[in-house]
Amino acid sequence: MTDAAAIARLIEPAVKELGFDLVRVAMIGGKSDPTLQVMAERPDTRQLTIDDCADLSRKLSELLDDADPIEEAYRLEVSSPGIDRPLTRRSDYADWTGHEARLKYAEPVDGAKQISGDIVGIDGETIRIATPKGERTVQFSNIASAKLLLTDKLINATAPLSSEGAEEFETEED
After folding, report:
1. Beta carbons within 10 angstroms of residue 72's beta carbon
2. What is the pTM of this model?
3. Within its chain, how far is the Cα of 135 from the centroid?
4. Is 69 exposed, middle or buried (0-12, 13-18, 19+ CB in 10 A)?
5. Strand pairing category for 21-28 and 134-139
6. Which DSSP letter does residue 166 get?
7. What are phi and psi of 131, to 5 degrees?
8. What pLDDT, in 10s, does the model give residues 68-112?
């Protein structure tokens, strides 16, 4: 089994060297399509351009080929976290305060396996979430996974850096 945390520690200096922040490292795809997924972003825009992804992919491919931390064959996928991004760092909760998120618990809380609501903020290790039933708190250590939910507010807050590569479609009128 591949240790994603060890790979993150291995590649983070290279990610930083290019001026990016590492968001997540994960092995996905199972045995049929093992893929090392690396998500990164520019600290000032929270996004990556296609050229940024290509530069990072080349740098990481070299590093990973030399270090060879994964025994089996795999694909490398380098991307921006996307609009409905995962929340993996404490700073993500501060950065995205006011936006809606879904957090899945590592251990159920009062029988619940997840919680959804607006991020109110983070106090040390405690994430505050406003739900229809009132404000709830979640210990950062009890979050198995979390992501922003796609809302109009989020769309307005995350305008793309560039529309390069986007195609315009013409419609035919009958």
Report:
1. 8
2. 0.81
3. 25
4. middle
5. unpaired
6. P
7. -115, 170
8. 999 889 999 999 998 889 999 999 999 999 999 999 999 999 999
